[in-house]
Amino acid sequence: MRSLIERLHREHTLSPDELRTLLVGCDAEHLALINQKAREVAYSHFGNRIFIRGLIEIGNCCRNDCFYCGIRRSNRNVERYRLDKETILSCCAQGYELGFRTIVLQGGEDNYMTDERVVDLVSSIRKAYPDIAITLSLGEKSTEAYQAFYQAGANRYLLRHETHNEAHYQSLHPESMSLQNRLRCLYDLKKIGYQTGTGIMVGSSGQTIEHLVEDILFIETLQPEMIGIGPFLPHHDTPFASEPSGKMEQTLLLLSIFRLMHPKALIPSTTALATLAPDGRERGILAGANVVMPNLSPVWQRSKYALYDNKASMGAEAAEGLRLLEEKLDAIGYVIDKSRGDYEN
Ligand code: 5AD
Prior knowledge:
Blueprint: H1 2-11, H2 16-25, H3 28-46, E1 49-52, E2 54-59, H4 85-98, E3 102-107, H5 115-128, E4 133-137, H6 143-152, E5 156-158, H7 166-172, H8 179-192, E6 195-202, H9 209-222, E7 226-231, H10 248-261, H11 271-276, H12 280-286, E8 291-292, H13 322-331, E9 335-337
Helix pairs in contact: 1-3, 2-9, 3-10, 5-6, 6-8
The structure holds 5'-deoxyadenosine.
């Protein structure tokens, strides 16, 4: 096990069989070792600096019906909202004032949010803040739409593939969705020139070690600039309400594997990880993550963007809680880096 970890550190890759062995057999002692190696790799590229991204949840209306997600279309118990342009721009202003130089617009796949409206929104933000990075996380769109958003000034796009296994993908999503289209989107985004993020939920219903190996290999092929991984967490109003949460240890192991395979990738310590355990965010950083994404959305709607139960959005998860975040990072020897934090080759 030790020699596998050392080789992954040195060569940034392992065979599928070796990955399987690592995923199955990594005990607490070896988890500590791989977390340490991953932390060292992150340190060698980024020092003790953690990039921050201001997350604006622009709306929870969604045409999709993903079985795991709290804002799925058939959940009648969510109060739906949509931020207007003015509100989004004022969130950006607040974020800019606080020092954020990346803003992330995330939302459900909302029919009201036409490609034209997204272009208009991105152009307005770009005009007002020429120096920030604009990241979109708005789901599956047409090639032309991705191109138009890019031309309007978007720089990055987040779209998790969720699982690279066809049958597993279908077991998490309704028939109207396909892995093929998800992958088409990701290849489009890369080709257009976006810094592209993908990733998975760890411990999603039916996920096996084989699936995880496939995910690792897919990410190795795609070479995304950003890799988002967090534990699956159940939401009470979904078909997966009584599924168990993903495990902290497995999430940290995967985080470290991704850091060792993609030394310069931007890897967030996710809100889901911070929700799973009070020290989750810190543990993610100590396993090789180098990004956190505090919430810049208006406080009055944060609880409505509940992808899973008990989703953290206040305290150190909140943009206005930067001081608290700073203290928490300081306690583990890290500082906030307020620069754009683009992917650098
Ligand atoms: N638990 C954890 N993560 C979730 N996501 C959606 N629902 C859940 C859940 N129940 C993640 C998906 C999606 C991202 C925006 O949030 O991976 O891509």
